[in-house]
Structure formats: C-alpha cells, structure tokens
UniProtKB/TrEMBL annotation:
InterPro entries: Split_barrel_FMN-bd (IPR012349), TR_PAI2-type (IPR007396). This is FMN-binding negative transcriptional regulator. It comes from Parerythrobacter lacustris. Pfam families: FMN_bind_2.
Length: 199
C-alpha cells in the first residue's frame, strides 16, 4: 500500500465495484511451512465480505478457517513516462490500482459453496454474452467429484486498504497527457480510471 494519502479512497461503493469488476485476487497467509499465496476468483457479498474457493490440496486450505488473512485485488497498472510531464528532468513512475483486504476467514459449508459456485458461473458467463453455459450441463457424478475437491471460504473484511495511484500530484493538463499516452500505448483501462476517479 502506497503511503501517500492522496492515493486513498474511503468510497466503499467504489471499492466494492473494483472487486466486482476485477473478480480475481490473491489470498495471503503465513502457514507453519511459511508464507503462502493462492490466486482465486472473488465474489463480493455486498455486505463487507468476499468469498472464494480453493483446491482441497492447496497449501492454504487447511490453515485458513478462523485465521486472519490478506486478500489483494490488483486493478490496471502501467509505466508512466516523463515524456508526458511538463518538466522531463525527473524520473518515471508506475500508476496502479490495488486493494488490500484484511480480515477473518471462515470455512463455508457445502450449501454455501454450492451457492458460491453457481453465482460465480452466472456472473462470468453473463460477461461473455451469447448463449451461456450452465452447471447443469455437467453430469451429477462429475460435479460431485469435482465439488469434493474444493473448499469454500468467506473473508469478513476488517480493514480496507486501497491504493488508487493515478498521477494525482500532476496538473490537470499533465494528467490528461498521461491518460492519453496510457490509452495510446496499451493501458486504456488505467487511462479511463485516471479520467474518472481522480480530480
């Protein structure tokens, strides 16, 4: 998390939207074997929690229930060149959007996991458009076998630590040049956030 308060946000609706839109993150926890991370689809509950599932054999699975863990959601990021500044006699930087969620984890029961899986499938199938795939297309015996291989979790967020580093220290004219440069060089999502989220 960047220490500059300019890059913070207390807008919970915005933070929930970031989780909803990005939909993927990393879960960190220190186990007796050392620090571990898992990369997971995330589903915000809308009431201050996020849900995810792990393979039963994942190094984190047996350690998360009742633990305090960290979830990190990374948004768009990009290199920012001094060529877009008024004064080029400086150094490059990196603009990015990231959200750290610290909280208590509980293991979900089978009904909760089933609900989570169907919600994730419905959410991401809808984003693809066209004819959606349905979990009912998977034979019951196969679904049951795969279901037994995963574990669902919910993290109750106790601390929200966002970083929205979008060149806020620059003038409006410089920020527009940076946004244009980012959009032109492969980072349109970051450019759009720069234009809409920061003054």
């Amino acid at each position: 998390m960047h220490p500059n308060p300019l890059f913070r946000s207390e807008d919970r609706a915005l933070l929930e939207t970031l989780i909803e839109q990005i939909g993927f993150g990393m879960v960190f926890h220190t186990t007796p074997e050392g620090p571990r991370v898992a990369h997971v689809p995330l589903l915000p509950t809308g009431d201050g929690a996020v849900q995810f599932h792990l393979a039963r054999g994942n190094a984190l699975t047996k350690h998360l229930d009742g633990a305090t863990a960290l979830v990190v959601v990374n948004g768009p990021d990009a290199y920012v060149s001094p060529r877009w500044y008024d004064d080029r006699a400086t150094v490059p930087t990196w603009d990015y959007v990231a959200l750290e969620l610290e909280g208590r984890v509980r293991r979900m029961d089978d009904d909760g996991l089933e609900t989570l899986l169907h919600a994730v499938i419905a959410k991401f199938e809808a984003r693809l458009g066209g004819e959606q795939w349905s979990a009912s297309e998977t034979p019951d015996d196969m679904w049951g076998k795969l279901f037994r291989g995963i574990v669902g979790f919910e993290l109750e967020v106790l601390a929200w630590r966002p970083t929205l580093k979008l060149s806020q220290k620059k003038s409006p004219q410089e920020r527009e040049r940076i946004a244009s440069g980012l959009a032109e060089h492969g980072s349109p999502a970051l450019a759009e956030l720069m234009r809409t989220l920061a003054p």
